[in-house]
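INFO batch 0412 | record 1 of 1 | parsing
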Amino acid sequence: MLTKVSDFYSSSILEHRATPKGVGWEDKESQDLRFKQLCRVITEQDPNVKVSINDFGCGYGALFEYLDERVQIRKYYGYDICPDMIISAKERNPHGKAEFIQSSRISRTADYSFASGTFTVQLDSTYKEWTDYIRSSLIKMSNKSKKGFAFNALSTYVDWKSKGTYYANPLFFFAFCKQNISKYVSLIHDYPLFEWTILVRKEGYLK
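INFO prediction complete | emitting tokens
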């Protein structure tokens, strides 16, 4: 299942290079808006504290570049199943605090973990197979996150769907996280993209 996804992204980045289109997004503006929502799990809790980060499905390292300008990163681990993505990420980000790993799972424990667009491409997997994969991945992300994690997905609240693309019910995943991972879960579905973001914190916080 994941091999087909890896092949899909290899073709994409070879065609579009290290750009938002290379990972399936329209442009940098929408990509940054997406990252802004995810980043709230840190900025609303630890805006001025050095943190370690896992990026599950890191692509060419765009999230690292975004976060590095806005939060204090102590160490960043980027994981991707696509070897061409990892090669591109290492070329773009030869920083000592960024480490890129070709893998289908998170192997390091960090303060926060992210999955941005990681669950979008379903291809010919069944809806149940891909949903089960996401649920399993979220549990593993939680186990490797000391303070919290954030992820996004395309929403079922759309009027058109693309074949081979996964559209997730935000209420289902909100309930899943609330019931199985943490009491402190936020659902964000009010920004102008056809998607949602969920923030999961291990402890509550005061605004």
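INFO post-check: The radius of gyration is 16 Å.
INFO record closed
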